[in-house]
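Recall that a protein's primary structure is simply its ordered list of amino acids. Everything else, from secondary elements to tertiary packing, is in principle encoded there. The following example makes that idea concrete.
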Amino acid sequence: MVSYAQGIDALNQSVSELRDISVSFEFFPPKTETMEQTLWKSVERLAPLNPSFMSVTYGANSGERDRTHDVVKRIQTETGVQTAPHLTCIDATKEELIAIAKDYWASGIRRIVALRGDLPPGSDTPTSYASDLVALLKEVEDFDISVAAYPEVHPDAPNSQFDLLNLKRKCEAGADQAITQFFFDADTYLRFRDRSAAAGIDLDIVPGILPVTNYKTLVKFAGMTNVHVPNWLHKMYEGLEDDDQVSRNLIGANIAMDLVKVLAKEGVRDFHFYTLNRCELSYAICHMLGVREHS
């Protein structure tokens, strides 16, 4: 019988021997000067890891849209890292979307994360979906398009089969890659990957990893996005509400590292990190994966 220690040693050995690991990072546009300083510190820290791309989220109002455009262009210009703006179709006309896409292409942006977007409160059924946006973008230029995938089902989907068929429509519309919502059980991702393949979805499905730095924020996000927070994770943070941030960061890093180790052992080679504009935990996990800085 293989002991627990032997199992961990074997897992660590397999991770240490990994090659060709690819990572990407997500940021959001800053709203204050302090948040802006944090963002650029994180971008500067993570860019030398040579990520496949850095993505920037997209708000529903015009002010945040402009901030997204500015951040995307600055990251790509100053770091040379391919940058992927999020783009939603729920709050823009076809003409506006075409104009935005053309501007991005002219600025050297070649990748876009195409999303439906959150429905405004009290709104009716949307008239356009992410699959429509993917098709539109492919008509404008040959963008490399990432779309969202939901291992635990999108909050608006009536069931998992409906949600899976929606992902298939995005694939058939021309998507090049899917990035999952964050999750905490490796089996959740692995079962979803198998179900997607069985449904004929021919996409790389990249796991979205959220290194937890703030447990209360995590619980809030999870409630909004239909993500299950396992009981064992609740227990990990129990009693640490008033503890220092270092303790919580250590726990968050270990949880994410264990998840990444299991997925890497299962053949996953691409990981997308939801940084929340913080670099420390993502950098540490990448180092553990053998991702090193490039001069």
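Strands lie at 22-27, 53-56, 83-88, 111-115, 144-149, 177-182, 204-209, 270-274. The radius of gyration is 19 Å.
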